[in-house]
Amino acid sequence: MSQIFKTALLLGALTALLVVIGGAIGGQQGMVVAFFIALAMNFFSYWFSDKMVLAMYGAQPLDEASAPMVHRIVRRLATHAGMPMPRIYLVPSDTPNAFATGRNPEHAVVAVTDGILRILDEEELEGVLAHELSHVKNRDTLIMTIAATLAGAITYLAQMAQWAAIFGGGRRSDEEGGGGGGLIGMLLMAVLAPFAAMLVQMAISRSREYEADASGARLCHRASGLEHALAKLDAASRQVPLNATPATAHLFIVNPLTSGGLATLFSTHPPIEERIARLRAMRL
From residue 148, how far is each of 15, 144, 180, 200 by CA, in Å? Predict the structure, then answer.
């Protein structure tokens, strides 16, 4: 319940930040417009995000004849979790990775790459698929899609605020007798708001990843499979990076953006070492 409460607060913070930027651009009317923009974008992402992501990565349906082990594992896990059997897709990529998408368990999709099917054994693959089904059951696929959509809208409006400050903010400040304070304030907000949105999205995504790891381990009654899989996937993805976009990086079980260095501090994924340590602690 604490994770659910934390996630709700963070989503509320993203929505509030979006409305504040709208207010800075257009006053009370701008706040209303920004709020309805958020509703419209969330409505679109709710209905169409899964189709967009699958098309983006060229994913194709994976039939049971081509991958009987994958279907057998997913069917068994879905039955244990008390949820419908999700559709299974294959992403044509040598990079080992996997993700889940879909607005609810009844419309869920689990996608795996060619690479992950080659390097993981059955126990490790079970751990990965249990992690992804946990995302579906916990409604993380919807939560993280909404967070990414709101963060994208904040970035877009912040850019609008920047142009508004440059071309209109200074004149309005002079008319109101405020000097350049209004201009400076809008420019600061235009720079800081996307950064704040990124931090909030990162916090949501990281908390959901930890929960999916734990839920997945409980679903298959062991943590060792996912623990070993994460170590393999992390090492392999560094050698063969996936051509992924930052907007969808949060979907994957391991971060497909392996830039390393300072960028890892702002990753949507927790450190692999910490995830493995938590899974190892579940075995004690």
Answer: 12, 6, 33, 10
Percent of the chain at pLDDT above 70?
A: 69
Query: What whole-number distance in Å separates Cα of residue 140 and Cα of residue 87?
Result: 17
Kindly name the residue from 124, 126, 132, 209 that is annotated as catalytic: 132
Q: Which residue has the tokens 């913070």?
A: 13
Active site residue 124: no
Across the chain, where does the E strand assignment appear? 60-61, 87-91, 98-101, 109-113
Strand 87-91 versus strand 98-101 pairing type: unpaired
224-239 and 272-282 helices, crossing angle to 10°: 170
Would you say residue 11 has pLDDT above 90? no
Residue 121: which residues within 8 A CB-CB, separation 6 or more? none
Is residue 222 a contact partner of residue 263, using CB atoms and an 8 Å limit? Answer: no
Decide: 136 and 105 in contact? Cβ < 8 Å.
yes
* pLDDT value, residue 170: 46
Can you give the pLDDT at residue 174?
46
Give 25-81 as a DSSP string.
HHHHHHHHHHHHHHHHHHHHHHHHHHHHHHHHTT-EE--TTT-HHHHHHHHHHHHHH
Backbone angles phi, psi at 88, to 5 degrees: -120, 130
Question: Which residues are within 8 A (CB) of 40 and not within 5 positions of it... i.e. 6 or more apart?
Answer: none
